[in-house]
Structures
1.
Amino acid sequence: MNVTDIPLEERIIFALDVADPRKAIALVDRLSDHVRFFKVGMQLFFSGGWSVVEHIVRKGCKVMLDLKLYDIPATVKLAVEQFADRGISLTTVHGYSPVVEAALEADTGIQILAVTVLTSFGKEQVSELQYQGTVEDLVLQRARTVLSVGCHGIVCSAMEAPLLRQQLGQEFVMVTPGIRPAGADLNDQQRVATPGRAIADGSDYLVIGRPIRDAKDPEACISAIQREIGQALA
């Protein structure tokens, strides 16, 4: 993937992590002159997310549908088929190869992203899985496996980005949540990075929600982050 082909206004995927579709639509209307990519996650989708998806698409913006699908392969394939022809650019499944293969078999033209390890996970959570390696080892293992079956890209912490680029190359999309501008509250995230660091280390897209949404001036916050991204790319 040639990361220079991604417009600056699409580098931030703004996370519409609100429960009310009306509030989500208002955020899209307010921010779509500055950000051209929006994430619709489970909370919003289950409260009426198709209306939000349709609104984003009508605005000429892109959609990441982040439902992190995980079920028997046949069910995953049928679910992903329902996303066809709705203007969705990216969608997520868990990083388990049969699930990824089923999502790919739906053949909707939507890029499939495999979630490796959630950014809220740390050493304690990984040890509860009785996995003997580090968080980084687990992310690399899962990423290598899903990319080997044709997955278009992965979702991971920016902390693992340098390792994955070094080990797995450039020919896949890397989307990183857990992005926090310097001095921002970490909230429930453990493995975080600043926007500039994430881009410099190999991330293609940065998922950012609360730091922008809760800012006194969200538009100014976006502009500052985009300047930081531009400097990292340069």
2.
Amino acid sequence: MTVIREHDAVAHCLHGATFHSFLSPSRGSRELCAWRLEIADGTVGVPHRVSREEVVLVLSGEVTTTIDGEAATVRAGEAAFVPSGAEFAIDNTSGGQATAWVTTSVGLRATLPDGSEISPPWAA
């Protein structure tokens, strides 16, 4: 069994959030990517279209997810499902930090509002 310790996760910062990569192809996975997401209070997420399904399980705090224009509050212990091809944004205006565990499949790409694409390093 392979165990990834918290101190072995690789941190990446983008758009006011920190992505702690635990599992990705660069870390030995062939099919899955997983990271812990930390979102500071007052962070308004950048809308982006995802190329793979994502599951966002909120671990602490609460966030607002907007998926294809539909906004919903997601609290600790609840999950949001982001379908492949959906436009997605996640905001934290709750008054405190929020954390979430995110899982997706290898090959995730995000298309930003200006049409540019990124391959997130926490999923590569």
3.
Amino acid sequence: MQMRALVTGASAGLGAEFARQLAADGFSLVLVARREERLRALAAELSAARPGTQIEVLVADLTDAAGLERVAARVAAADRPIDVLVNNAGFAVSEPFHASAIDDERAMHELLSWVPLRLAHAALPGMRARGHGGILNVASMAGQLPTGSYAAAKAQVIALSRSLHARYRRDGVSVTALLPGFVVTEFHDRMEIEPTAVPRAAWADASAVVRDGLRGLRRRRAVVVSDWRYRLAAPLLPLVPDRMAAGWGLAGRLED
């Protein structure tokens, strides 16, 4: 029987790459995002590349309570169990905190912080009963820095992942936070970052980032910093003064 993975934010970027690599590893898939046409195009691509792979398309807006609960119910379904949950969906708010719309801030924090918690809560009872499972939460290197509200939400995802990993690893369930830096995906294209704003050497490849995350999940690691450049930099981040790190915040907005 094929193992099954559910990926949120699967319509583009890291989410689509997670789907491709999981399909290549033999998983059947549940693809979740708001944009149905993109999900169906990805499902067709994966079905053509991997005949026999079972692929479900679940269209949902995770910032909508009813949409989130539909996905949570699918995660918890005992008759079609989810073996690996990838919490990837996200967006960033463009304006600085003092000028942003509070509804946008709330929606961002719900998607980045509440949604992974809600879906993990739905996944864990079944995973524990079966004695195995994995939850991969896409966080960010920003979660290690005081770079605004987005960073605060990602810091919560890191803390949640570490806590759940420590508590449920003994039950056969591994929970991993993946910390990417700048990744060549639609996320940063739509954030409208000027090419010269970030050195070319700082950009990581999406396929490598996803491989790092899935490898870390298989190895039962609580936190994975993707890309060797960011792994080299990670120990130095606590030494960076807050006032300097705060200037590294990025403007822009992305939705799955």
